[in-house]
Amino acid sequence: MIRLYIILLAGVLVMAGCTQPQPTNTNQNTNTNSSVIEGDVMDGHDDEGDKTDIDDGPSASETMDDEDNGDQAGENDKEADDSGENETQVYTNKAIGYSLNHPVNWYWQHFLAGTTENGVNLDSDYFIADPNPLVGFGSEYLGRYVIQVSSRPLSDFADAVNDLTKSSSKVDGIDAARYEGTRTNMVVENQTVVEYQFMRNGQSFRVIYSMLDSDPEQEAMFESFVKSISFES
């Protein structure tokens, strides 16, 4: 009887030693309120040979040649707006020669994109900012705030604003056309769009706001964003 008990006890111990521990998830995203994107938006080269240079925010490990390594956003000073309710962060685009203030805790990205025969020359410079993680270049929605600088004429972008109401405005003293309206179609519903278009030094500029179910407070924040744009003299 004692011998049988010892054999059963040994069997229990062997089975306990063979039990595998349950795996734990060590890849939790703990930085859910970051102003820096922690992943790639798209590959450096796509299947068609297009080339895209991407900057993932002020702490990106790789930056463009025209940016200071490790400080792509320029000064990271935080300042309050006139209401004192929203903090902004300074971003400087040294390649184009402008600076602006964008909301501190937003995701943002700066990159170049374009298609040429040799895949080297890039014809569009983008700055994108959004309170949520960015979807990625090539999607219908890039971000709530988008600045596109291009070598293409503004007439190429006429179709993008033909359903919006046009008025005259200025951006940092430069004459600009301002387009505004609300879109509801097969793709979006109740999307407010505001777009500024102007030319500077032979380049076309588009400063775009788009938001579903927008409200006056968000639109006022965008107008403050536009007013913060300042070009080097």
TrEMBL record:
Keyword terms: Signal
Signal peptide range in chain numbering: 1-21
Compositionally biased region (Acidic residues): 45-56
Protein name: PsbP C-terminal domain-containing protein
Biased composition (Low complexity): 22-33
Chain segments carrying region Disordered: 22-86
Organism classification: Bacteria, Candidatus Buchananiibacteriota
The UniProt record lists the keyword Signal: yes
This protein's record includes keyword Signal: yes
